[in-house]
Write a structure and sequence with these properties.
The protein is of the alpha+beta class. Helix content is 34%, strand content 23%. The longest helix has 19 residues.
Length: 128
Amino acid sequence: MESINALGRRKAAVARVYLNDGKGNITINGKDYKDYFGSDILQYVVTQPLLLLNSADKYDITVNLEGGGERGQAEAVRLGITRALVKVDAENKTSLKANGFVTRDPREVERKKPGRPKARKRFQFSKR
């Protein structure tokens, strides 16, 4: 099997995922994913699509990650892995979509507006 590329994005994070046949190693920016993501929850988020399809030990995954915070990066990797698994076998898409892994989460931080302290918050109104 040749290498399969996929792209995952979430907030400001971008994950380029390369999927190959292997033993289940996940490498992110040259580190093992368990070292890169210290939290057990984020490690679980990364492996969710593989656990769902019972293919955690079939593929070696290499990821180039940039931008965003920890949570956004983990969810970007999840989307990238999901898209790569769909490229491997299109039948995987139905079960992955049922769990909400195929859809990209479009929520981004809203920009700050001029004359306000934050995007929507206003300064206190004074009648007199």
